[in-house]
Amino acid sequence: MSAREEVLAAVRSALHPAASSPAPVASPPPVPSVPGPDQAPGEEVVALFAGRVADYRAEVTRCGAAELAEVVSSIVADAHGVVVPPGLDLELPGATLDDDLTAAQLDGIEAVVTRASIGIAVTGTVVLDHGRGQGRRSVTLLPDLHVCIVDERQVVSDVGDALARLDPRRPQTWVSGPSATSDIELSRVEGVHGPRRLHVVLVGD
Amino acid sequence: MPPFPTAARAALGDAQLRRNLAHATGTIRAKRAAVIDELEDWEGLRQRAARTKDETLAHLDEHLLTLEASLTARGATVHWARDAADACRVVADVARAHGIRDVVKVKSMATQEIQLNETLAEQGISAWETDLAELIVQLGDDLPSHILVPAIHRNRTEIRDIFRDRMGAVGRAAPDGLTDDPAVLAGAARLHLREKFLSTRMAVSGANFAVADTGTLVVVESEGNGRMCLTLPEVLVSVVGIEKVVPTWSDLESFLTLLPRSSTGERMNPYTSTWSGVAPGDGPQEVHVVLLDNGRTKALADDFARQALRCIRCSACLNVCPVYERVGGHTYGSVYPGPIGAILNPLLKGVGQDPATDALPYASTLCGACGDVCPVAIDIPGILVHLRGKVVDAHRGDGLPKAEAVAMKAAAWGLGSAARLGLGERLLGAAAGLWRGSRAGTTRPVITRLPWPGSHWTRARDLPVPPRESFRAWWRRTGRDGGAS
Ligand code: SF4
What we know:
The structure holds two protein chains of two kinds.
Chain A: H1 3-15, H2 43-55, E1 59-64, H3 68-75, E2 82-84, E3 96-97, H4 103-107, E4 111-115, E5 118-120, E6 125-128, E7 145-151, E8 155-156, H5 159-165, E9 172-175, E10 180-181, E11 189-190, E12 197-204
Parallel strand pairs in A: 1-12, 2-3, 2-4, 4-7, 5-8, 7-12
Antiparallel strand pairs in A: 5-6, 6-9, 10-11
Chain B: H1 4-12, H2 15-37, H3 42-58, H4 60-73, E1 76-81, H5 84-97, E2 102-105, H6 109-113, H7 116-122, E3 126-129, H8 132-139, H9 156-166, H10 182-199, E4 202-205, E5 209-211, E6 216-221, H11 225-231, E7 235-241, E8 245-246, H12 252-263, E9 271-275, E10 286-292, H13 296-300, H14 316-320, H15 322-327, H16 338-349, H17 355-359, H18 369-373, H19 380-395, H20 403-415, H21 418-435, E11 436-437, E12 446-447, H22 454-458, E13 463-464, H23 471-484
Parallel strand pairs in B: 1-10, 2-3, 2-4, 4-7, 5-8, 7-10
Antiparallel strand pairs in B: 5-6, 6-9, 11-12, 12-13
Helix pairs in contact in B: 3-12, 9-10, 16-19
The complex binds iron/sulfur cluster.
Iron/sulfur cluster binds near residues 312, 313, 316 and 378 of chain B.
């Protein structure tokens, strides 16, 4: 008997010691459809999101859409190299477009600017589903500073609301504060591997 | 590993270990309590998660088939493993098929359970741990001692020495002038491991959850080493215990709320990665999933104790356990320490086969704290008692009575008569001088070794030295005087 048959048989005999139940035929189930955005969240939810992100020692800046380019430019002004994903839709002079850069190339760039898919207020989390403007997964991982632009309308209240809006077929990265470890005598150290700084820019209007 | 009582005796003598553990568990307990209080209905969430897991386990075969089908549809290759040997073989075969001799790893209990690193090493394949704590453990030729903070038994100076002496032999050496500042040490680890992430073509991970209907695997972590392993290499193999399956994407709500809060006391862990098979143009383009039994169906067959398979490995039960806090994780002789280890190991391995496993259900005071804290409401104390019964049953007819039974019978005999008690007290007081010793880290004189049958008791415990004069002798001497005045 193959390992597959043996494991399944062991599961069945553990569950139904007497019966030898037949194998149900499995076909891939339909993937649930993802609802579109509801109406914009209230200021209370947006403020909660901003506060909770800041609790992780991430930086948070709120601004209007008109000031966005200027705000982001000043955040990355001192960085040695900035990479942006295709579809960011933001003028950032001097930034490198991620045009399938190698991991080694990304490793040599200090900052990355992306958008997000959703922000979760209760947990202060930004979720990237790596669609347009969010970059491949490695783009937000190798540079040391991640500047993440979140539109106020993308903020949802809690994890359940986020899951309802996200498409499980897309790979996702949920980010809550900068990379952190407490492995050495429980002292918290930022960024062993991922970006040591996370800067969330929350855009209103 | 020696059985729990023997290992515990050594661990209890290690004052540094106990200080580290008390600090760690105390800190995490306080953080956890604060973030749990923020939620309106923790209990409701807990019951919902428990119910989801129970219902999944009750139809595990169907959910596994669904998971297999959705993973396959999304471009992953699914393998099944009866035991550790099967699972290790799959990983080694994938590596060999690509001519790969080095793999990077995300910390995972399942891969530790099957001793993947050791098995791969025998076949000339090096597996590099990439979690900071696991790196410390691996470079130090050591064993992890806590599910969540595996190197909690090491202090910063020891870590500095390990990095300075060992890093160079296996990759980028630690920078000169390394201090024992945690940020500096983390910086050294960052450089050492970044080199590995960028050059290694294959990664191995576990998964915290596997969503059946969408074929999504979920890994929850803090450092970003998980993200590195899950996205940079060309080939990814994930070893997933069959109990990790949850039916639907929306079931993740309760688990992603319960896990970080119970585990590190955070509202959310820094990084959660989810992926469903292969994502074209992003991340590994060859994805394998190994569905691992290795005793889980044995646990499943126990109608009552089956609930142990709900465990989401948050380690909250370790952090509240008075026994764990004093003896640490190594004592349990297994990758699953603490209260969950005390029930999971006997369930996965079966009782009545080796003394070390049979000792584990007794490694508890049954205070109940572990059951109260468990985010998926596993009745750990109930299962401990249930397993004690099974251990006793397994040893019926062994001939020799268990040590505990002998000791209890002797105690009953000694305490059953005033004359015998008086005699015992006098003998013990007189003989104490012969057996007196002391343990490292204390100044209190203790008896560390009694003659048989008392040796069964002192194998795992010290006995305070009895006073030279028994209470009854003292009362005869002073009580009478006091009464007369
Ligand atoms: S038994 Fe419960 S408390 Fe212990 S690690 Fe598992 S889920 Fe957490």
